[in-house]
Design a protein that fits this description.
Elements: E1 2-5, H1 11-21, E2 26-31, E3 36-37, E4 54-56, E5 62-64, H2 66-76, H3 89-106, H4 110-113, H5 119-139, H6 153-167, H7 176-186, H8 189-199
Parallel strand pairs: 1-2
Antiparallel strand pairs: 1-4, 2-3, 4-5
Helix pairs in contact: 1-2, 1-6, 1-8, 3-5, 3-6
Length: 202
């Protein structure tokens, strides 16, 4: 498999999942401004959406979108319990959680990445993020991780959002359980390796 990525983007979640899965893979940088890959290839011919993460499988098929790729990878290594079993109610709860991270958290970082800083947009986004963090803080009151006491792909995805909080100086002290989860994830070898890898491109 080959992961097309951009440093510190949401492709980090896929990179972490790949490390955790122990599946064989390679990586290739994508310049998102020019849509040219590290090997000089036109990225739009691989993914016409022009976005990362993009995962090219051994058979040449292409997967896009964070939640889809995370689900695919987790299903390749069922013994690692990174996602509940197909057909279980817990599986649907996981899909709901992944959608929540995508739509209620990931999406609300758009204001911070926009080229022109619009303070009113940023302020609204902070308020929405705060409400979302309140919800996840409540889930962590009795859980070590977002979906229980075992790590799952939801934690890998959420970690990227917490990493962005550092980058944009969003204080997490209001949410001690989330902050504790962040520290716990930062200690994992997979996360440390991906952070070091991405930082080498800056």
């Amino acid at each position: 498999m080959k992961l097309f990525f951009y440093p510190h983007a949401c492709s980090m979640a896929i990179h972490i999942a790949l490390k955790e899965s122990s599946l064989e893979f390679e990586t290739e940088f994508v310049d998102l401004s020019t849509k040219i890959t590290g090997s000089g290839f036109d990225f739009l011919k691989i993914n016409p959406k022009g976005a990362v993460p993009t995962l090219v499988l051994e058979n040449g098929k292409v997967l896009t979108e964070v939640t889809t790729i995370l689900t695919y990878l987790a299903d390749q290594v069922p013994e690692k319990n990174l996602i509940p079993k197909v057909g279980s109610f817990e599986r649907y709860e996981m899909m709901s959680l992944l959608s929540f991270i995508s739509m209620d958290i990931h999406k609300n970082f758009s204001a911070f990445f926009y080229n022109k800083k619009i303070e009113s947009w940023i302020e609204v986004s902070k308020q929405k993020l705060s409400r979302s963090f309140d919800f996840l803080e409540s889930k962590l009151q009795s859980n070590q991780f977002l979906d229980g006491n075992e790590i799952t792909i939801a934690d890998f995805y959420f970690f990227v959002m917490l990493h962005w909080c550092d980058y944009f100086s969003i204080d997490l002290e209001k949410w001690p359980k989330i902050l504790n989860l962040k520290y716990k994830l930062e200690k994992r070898t997979s996360v440390q390796e991906v952070l070091k890898f991405d930082s080498s491109f800056v």
